[in-house]
Specification:
The structure holds two protein chains of two kinds. By secondary structure, chain A is mainly alpha-helical. Chain A has 14 helices and six strands. The model of chain A has no long low-confidence stretch (mean pLDDT 90). By secondary structure, chain B is an all-alpha fold.
Chain lengths: 453, 340
């Protein structure tokens, strides 16, 4: 294989693996804030027990997120040096801002969140939990800023010629609030909230199935399902807004998502189907006019098809189509699951519906797969561009890195990441089997003191 | 000396990497010393001595990398693609170091703990060594072509001088970590660490003296610079005094001051390194005209200005909460149920 393929595989593999963890940390961060906040407000011991148990799960996901995140920070330079020279001005700034605003905040207060339970008072501990959660969100903000700039570059001008050409900032705020950034940020965050919420839902449902830790499980399930419901519904809204943005800013990408070759008014939305790339045709169950409506809020508005673009400027259609539809399907299913779960939980009739509990147990995979597919769709749909309209993917490679070296690092990191994943699953399983600690029903140390009013 | 934006960014990137060396330096040092104690409880104390802070300490490196990318993208690109395999080895080492801290305590079995203990120690030693080798190569100079791309090989990075800098870095971090460990522990482990710290100080002083001689004798472009700027001697002198002060304070059991002296030694070493490099960031050997400097490798003035504003907002906040975290977790390590 050539350097280009190997470097793309390596970047895809390392970012995919990394992307399992930060969304869980962001989502669990919200859950921890809600749980600990509820404890401070109501004083109910079960909330304290919940905060303690889910903090342990959070610590595990966070640790692997941090460990695999450093790779991302350096991989632009190692494999995509030409890209790094081209965008350092813009992209580097966002990464540096992430370090200074997000990582320090997160990692500093994480110490208090994990080890400070008995050392600091309730309010300071809760404040630290909030700061860790905020830091995790800031991190998402800056990384989405950077990635969105690659999708819809703004606030820059090109300086220099040929190999010396590069993008330089003209307006920092335009760069930050580039056309796709806000919608993509909220879309990404909803995905992260779902990842955290459905993890809590899944483990709690498992306890209900096994008829153990019942009070803990019900209380956790309530918080988990509430967040899951809100996040999955919001996800549909932000997804819709994102798609409208793609229609406007990256028409070739939208056409690839939907396998739309001919520019057409009354363009159909494919519910389920397949792309015949050879004959440039997409077949399946299609709702006429729906794509026009979703993209431009008008059933008769024309939607640009792939034929408007030279074959060299089109993204790979089949993968884009499949990733996008996979993500959408799972997203909609998650709304259904969250609705069903919430409905029966409200009625107090969840325990006897074992099929639903099983569904909830499995639901944890939904946001994980959808997050991955969504990310693939966003990145594959951007092809053949590395920076949309400015730099093609092969042009961004490191000039001096040889295929052998990339192969070596790819093998090394595949091995390491499989090892980490196996250990992660096995330790998570340990924590689930061990369950919440009953000793945690009684707060100790400084936390035992009542809050002053 | 007149201070332009590019020089300010040279300084800021330097501060981030110096902060990393001073803070994560002791974490890596604790890691390097970790296997010298065999008792599980003592190993746990070692882990928990750095438990609440190592993660934040590592962020200095990540942010330093980000700042280098933003301020000097050409250096970020040339160095990271040029040192490709070395960098991936460093990343692997840092990963094993990091996950070992989190994973070890989760299972009681002996083989499990031993596995992560070895991973922690090996990751720490390798990280220190590779960081040192990278610095050594920058100081010695690396081949750079006319396009500003690295023109050497992986094996070419393993010359004796950079390796010596690597070993010195391991020694420096071990000394730094041992003194930190002495501050954070009590009882039997404390006494052991005290003995190790003395050995580490001796090890480091031997390395430092050898390195100084090697630098004066074999690094050709550094000597004229010192001759032209005699004031550089004052930094070297400050460095020597800081190093000499470490055993003195340590002997009088003023461990806090010994640790501060060790920090001062790291600081002055980094200042010496920076002054010898300035205004180059990657010195090109054998073609000095291809060197990447703070001018030809920098981002646009606009970016440097924007980033300076970001740094001015961010850095005070970072210092404030870093200080509070160290304050909250001050004092000797006590194992409890949240500990690793």
């Amino acid at each position: 294989m050539d350097v280009l393929t190997l470097s793309r595989v390596q970047f895809g593999a390392t970012i995919s693996f990394h992307y399992i963890y930060p969304p869980m940390s962001i989502g669990l961060g919200i859950m921890l804030v809600i749980m600990e906040g509820s404890w401070l407000k109501t004083g109910k011991p079960v909330y304290h027990q919940m905060a303690r148990f889910w903090t342990k799960v959070f610590a595990l996901t966070f640790a692997i997120g941090v460990a695999t995140g450093i790779v991302m920070e350096f991989e632009f330079g190692t494999n995509w040096a030409t890209y790094s020279r081209f965008v350092g001005d813009v992209f580097g700034s966002a990464l540096a801002a992430e370090g200074i605003f997000a990582f320090f905040l997160e990692s500093g207060f994480l110490a208090v969140l994990l080890f400070g339970w008995d050392k600091v008072g309730r309010k300071l501990h809760f404040f630290s939990t909030c700061m860790v959660c905020l830091g995790a969100h800031f991190s998402a903000v800056w990384i989405v800023v950077a990635n969105s700039w690659m999708q819809t570059p703004a606030g820059y001008h090109l300086v220099g010629q040929g190999l010396k050409a590069r993008a330089e900032i003209t307006d920092f705020w335009q760069l930050v609030f580039n056309p796709s950034m806000v919608d993509r940020l909220f879309h990404t965050l909803c995905g992260a909230w779902c990842a955290g919420a459905f993890l809590v839902v899944s483990i709690s449902a498992w306890y209900l199935l096994k008829k153990t830790h019942l009070d803990f499980a019900r209380a956790s399930l309530k918080v988990g399902l509430s967040v899951a419901l809100v996040a999955s519904l919001l996800q549909a809204v932000t997804g819709d807004r994102s798609a409208k943005g793609v229609a406007k800013n990256q028409p070739a990408k939208l056409a690839a998502f939907e396998g739309l070759y001919e520019t057409s008014s009354n363009a159909p939305l494919t519910v389920i189907g397949w792309v015949d790339e050879k004959n440039e045709k997409t077949s399946g169950l299609r709702v006429p006019g729906m794509l026009s409506f979703l993209a431009h809020s008008d059933f008769h508005a024309p939607v640009t098809g792939l034929k408007e673009f030279k074959p060299a400027d089109r993204p790979p259609v089949t993968p884009s189509f499949l990733f996008f539809h996979g993500m959408m399907g799972i997203g909609l299913a998650l709304i259904g699951i969250a609705l069903l779960g919430s409905w029966y939980l409200r009625k107090g009739a969840l325990d006897e519906r074992r099929w639903l509990l099983w569904l909830l147990v499995l639901s944890v995979l939904g946001p994980q797969i959808a997050n991955q597919l969504g990310w693939f769709a966003a990145e594959v749909g951007r092809q053949p561009w590395l920076v949309y309209g400015l730099m093609r993917t092969p042009a961004g490679l490191s000039a001096v890195v040889k295929a052998n070296a990339v192969l070596a690092s790819l093998i090394l990191f595949t091995f390491i990441y499989f090892l980490l994943f196996a250990v992660f699953i096995s330790l998570l399983n340990d924590k689930i089997q061990h369950g919440p600690d009953d000793a945690d029903l009684i707060p100790s140390g400084k936390l035992a003191l009542p809050t002053r009013h | 000396m007149h201070l332009d934006l590019n020089s300010i960014w040279f300084l800021l990137v330097g501060i981030l990497f110096t902060g990393y060396a001073m803070l994560d330096g002791f974490d890596l040092g604790i890691g390097a010393l970790h296997l010298f104690t065999k008792k599980d409880e003592e190993r746990r104390v070692m882990f928990n001595a750095i438990g609440p802070v190592w993660d934040g300490n590592e962020v200095w490196l990540v942010t330093g990398g980000g700042a280098l990318f933003a301020a000097f993208p050409n250096v970020y690109a040339t160095a990271f693609s040029g040192f490709y395999l070395a960098l991936f080895l460093l990343l692997a080492s840092l990963i094993f170091r990091a996950v070992a801290i989190e994973f070890r305590s989760k299972r009681p079995q002996g083989w499990w703990r031993q596995m992560w203990d070895v991973s922690f120690a090996a990751g720490s030693v390798m990280s220190s060594l590779l960081i040192g080798v990278a610095l050594g190569n920058i100081a010695w100079g690396v081949p750079v072509d006319a396009d500003g791309e690295f023109a050497g090989t992986f094996a070419g990075l393993l010359k004796p001088y950079p390796l010596l800098v690597g070993v010195t870095t391991v020694a420096l971090f071990m000394m730094h970590g041992a003194i930190y460990g002495v501050m954070k522990t009590e009882g039997e482990l404390h006494d052991k660490l005290r003995v190790w710290a003395v050995r580490c100080i001796i090890f480091f002083v031997i390395c430092a003296v050898t390195l100084t001689m090697a630098t004066l004798l074999f690094v050709p472009h550094l000597a004229p610079r010192v001759r032209e700027n005699p004031w550089l001697f004052s930094v070297a002198l400050a460095n020597m005094l800081a190093i000499a002060n470490i055993p003195r304070e340590f002997q009088h059991r003023r461990d806090g001051r010994a640790f501060l002296s060790s920090c001062a030694a790291i600081l002055t070493l980094m200042v010496l390194f920076a002054l010898n490099t300035f205004p180059n960031l990657i010195y090109s050997l054998p073609h000095p005209e291809n060197s990447l400097t703070i001018y030809n490798a920098a981002s646009s003035p606009k970016t440097l200005r924007v980033m300076l504003v970001i740094a001015c907002i961010g850095i005070p906040a970072v210092l404030a909460y870093t200080a509070s975290i160290y304050w909250i977790f001050r004092g000797k390590v006590k194992l409890d149920k949240m500990s690793y």
